[in-house]
Design goal:
By secondary structure, the protein is α/β, with parallel strands linked by helices. 45% of the residues lie in helices and 23% in strands. The protein has one domain: Rossmann fold. Bound molecules: S-adenosyl-L-homocysteine, 3,4-dihydroxybenzoic acid and magnesium ion.
Length: 222
């Protein structure tokens, strides 16, 4: 049994024992695979952590960059409650279609808005339209653009918001080939988190069914 298999087994155990990953969420995973999308949604324990952070900051307005089949957005939508909303950005029309069906089946379709298009363009429009700030931003799309996404997140949040970035370790590739645009983007965004006086940040390594990875989380200071 490889380490990775055991990480997956423990992830399954924790998801069942501690985290309430119900059949609706499992169904979202299944339909994502059946639709031919890559099964790269967050783990159940990470989804629950996103939900917990929403509750800790009392999030009502959440922004997600990178939707896929709508798995993490469903955790977020449940956590913001009936008064809350999740805006999620996706460029793949097929993923958008699958996600919207998943939210309908999960009963959260009325609180999730998907904006189709390249996230950088959508973020520019959101910033220039002067939209109300978000309480939590979850960045989980193309890693090379993470520095731009963090800049936009800073423009779209308020003191007390949280900014979360997925996949900042990628099996240790964060320390690898510095020509890979995704590695460059990840390292740059981690440096930005570490040096911006507006943020208190950390990055945490994780192991799960998705192998060795990690996330960064930053609190927007007053
Ligand atoms: N947050 C999801 C997983 C997202 S996977 C979950 O945990 O359930 C990353 C997604 O980002 C993919 O669906 C991909 O199509 C999308 N994506 C990649 N580059 C993008 C871009 N430039 N603009 C918008 N979406 C992008
Ligand atoms: C990949 C992207 C993700 O957002 C993730 O959580 C895992 C893997 C990928 O592009 O390989
Ligand atoms: Mg991810």
């Amino acid at each position: 049994m490889t380490e990775d298999t055991r990480w997956g087994d423990v992830e399954g155990y924790l998801a069942k024992t501690v985290v309430d990953e119900d059949e609706v969420l499992v169904g979202i995973r299944t339909r994502t695979v059946q639709a031919g999308l890559r099964p790269i949604e967050v783990s159940a324990t990470d989804g629950a952590l996103l939900a917990l952070w929403c509750r800790l900051v009392g999030a009502r307005r959440v922004l997600e960059i990178g939707t896929l089949g709508g798995y993490s957005a469903t955790w977020l939508a449940r956590a913001v409650g009936v008064q809350g909303s999740v805006t999620t950005l996706e460029m793949d029309p097929r993923a958008a279609e699958v996600a919207q069906e998943n939210w309908r089946l999960a009963g959260v379709g009325d609180r999730v808005e998907l904006i189709l298009g390249a996230a950088a363009d959508t973020l520019n429009s959101l910033v220039s339209s002067g939209t109300d700030p978000y309480d939590l931003v979850f960045i989980d799309a193309d890693k090379k653009s993470n520095p731009a996404y963090l800049e936009a997140a800073l423009a779209l949040t308020h003191p007390g918001s949280l900014i979360v970035i997925d996949n900042v370790v990628r099996g240790g590739r964060v320390l690898g080939d510095s020509d890979d645009p995704d590695v460059v983007g990840t390292r740059r965004v981690l440096e930005m988190l570490g040096s911006d006086p507006r943020l208190q940040a950390t990055a945490v390594q994780t192991v799960s069914s998705k192998g060795w990875d990690g996330f960064a989380v930053a609190y927007v200071l007053g």
